[in-house]
Design a protein that fits this description.
five-stranded antiparallel beta sheet; four-stranded mixed beta sheet; D-amino Acid Aminotransferase, Chain A, domain 1; Rossmann fold; 11 helices; Dna Ligase, domain 1; 15 strands; 33% helix; alpha+beta
């Protein structure tokens, strides 16, 4: 029997467009002899709309942006996660949340699917929420003994009360250059590189447009190298890949719009360096209690020291995104990678059914 797979995409997030691109890529890659595809679209306003079952790949991303059928519809309900088979509603076999950023990658949707007891691809509530918040993530990494760059963080209200103090704190603890980022956003949205006070002030104002909490990280002269992790209790790593930004850093435009970034896969590192990187990547995966998939991003300093930058619990997932490219080079093509992730989702769900909830 074919797997009834729900694809959840869009979302009330600044990364809505990224999610739409990911959904279209996944739909094109899915083997329709193995999967029945049921699209579930979340608008930028937060409406949930169930589309008709897909029997062929879509050719334009706009075909996936369903409008609300009638006034009053578009509300979240369990029926969104059911499929009509022979005139009867039956639960989906699994859901693939193709959501990036807040309200999707941060544990909120994962919690919903847990309550509905539906298998879903990717990380659980804890790993998703901790991995989304860069401050929480780095605090956990520090507790796990993983080396990383120095950082400070602020919430909007404390910054508004003492802006000068915040800027001085950054300058005294980190210096320049430094990077200012929204704490709960990905795809390099709202990130700025700062070389002086004027740029720092502008960066604070920019980042606080996207989050109530921001993190400021010390700049470091290093190579940017990433590795993909796949699995549940026994995770495996891909080959490593290196990012060569042609701009001052790997920003949103470089990732998605102007192709101004070079990728070297596999990265030119020694066997010893690769072994150490794998160990650290799996350590970070386990520190956050991850499952399914993670892309772990590292800095390799000039003196050969690894610093973990972050992990992404729902990395970019188009065929030209780093996570699928790394696994393709390792020997798992994009369509097979999707199938493997669905299998891991069902494996984890079956494991959870062993938990006892009664005395």
């Amino acid at each position: 029997m074919k797997t009834k797979l729900g694809l959840l995409y869009g979302g009330k997030s600044a990364e809505h467009k990224v999610s739409m691109r990911t959904a279209m890529a996944v739909i094109k890659a899915l083997d329709l002899s193995k999967f029945d595809i049921f699209p579930i679209y979340i608008t930028e306003q937060g409406q949930w709309i169930k589309g008709p079952q897909l029997f062929a790949p879509v050719e334009n991303v706009n075909e996936l942006a369903f409008s609300t059928p009638e006034a009053g519809e578009g509300m979240l309900s369990p029926q969104l996660f059911q499929a009509e088979v022979d005139g009867q509603l039956t639960p989906l076999d699994a859901v693939f949340p193709l959501l990036h950023g807040p309200n999707g990658e941060d544990g909120t949707v994962q919690g919903l699917l847990e309550l509905l007891n539906i298998p879903y691809v990717g990380n659980g509530v804890l790993a998703s929420s901790a991995g989304m918040d860069k401050v929480v993530m780095k605090n956990i990494f520090a507790q796990a003994g993983l080396a990383q760059v120095d950082y400070v963080w602020f919430i909007r209200s404390e910054w508004e009360k003492a802006k000068e103090s915040a800027y001085v704190n950054v300058e005294e603890k980190l210096g320049y250059p430094c990077f200012v980022k929204p704490a709960n956003l990905g795809s390099s949205v709202g990130i700025s590189k700062c070389s002086d006070r004027a740029e720092l002030e502008a960066a604070f104002n920019e980042a606080f447009q996207f989050d109530r909490k921001i993190i400021i990280e010390q700049g470091v002269t290093a190579r940017e190298i990433e590795i993909a992790v796949l699995g549940n209790d026994e995770p495996q790593c891909s080959v490593a890949g290196e990012i060569i930004p042609k701009t001052s850093f790997y920003d949103y435009e470089a990732k998605y719009e102007d192709n101004s970034t070079g990728l070297i896969i596999p990265a030119e590192i020694s066997a010893e360096q690769y072994a150490e990187m794998k160990e650290l990547a799996i350590g970070s995966f386990k520190a956050l209690d991850c499952s399914g998939l993670v892309r772990a991003d590292f800095f390799l300093t000039q003196d050969g020291k690894w610093l973990i930058n972050e992990v992404n619990t729902m990395p970019g997932f188009t065929p030209v995104s780093m996570f699928p490219l790394l696994w393709n080079e390792t020997g798992i093509a994009y369509p097979q990678l999707i199938e493997k992730l669905v299998e891991l989702a069902q494996e984890r769900h079956a494991e959870k059914q062993r938990i006892r909830y009664t005395m």
